[in-house]
Write a structure and sequence with these properties.
Elements: H1 4-17, E1 31-37, E2 42-51, E3 54-63, H2 66-79, H3 84-97, H4 127-146
Antiparallel strand pairs: 1-2, 2-3
Helix pairs in contact: 1-2, 2-4, 3-4
The chain binds zinc ion.
Length: 147
Amino acid sequence: MPGLEDLYREIILDHYRNPRNRGALETPPAVSADGHNPLCGDEITLFVLVEDDIVADIKSSGQGCSISQSSASMMTQAVRGKSVAEAEALIHHFKHMMSIEDHHHDEPAEAPALGDLEALQGVVKFPVRIKCAVLAWNTLSQALESA
Ligand code: ZN
């Protein structure tokens, strides 16, 4: 029987090998943001199209380790079609899972579903990789601020 860690590894490798929402969007109307994690050499460029306060489309390109690139793939899948407020709630929730953000602000009664993103929770055990996992999310914050 494969254990949970094997399942998580499979999910991460699947997103790394077959990244979802890969590519670029025309700017404008989309906005773009670049993220860079010099510790690992990870690079992510995000393209986000916000329409009527909804993340109508999102694409990512870049290169780096499997954690950074699979996190970007899962992130685009998780926020596409969501409202900007829901996307921001997911950013907070993910960073909380990565133990880098305290939850002093008001918590929603129900935490947003993380889906495949739960596969990344094992990264917490490897502090040096946390920056890889949150790179896409910090880049999304930047993009949403400029949208
Ligand atoms: Zn990395």
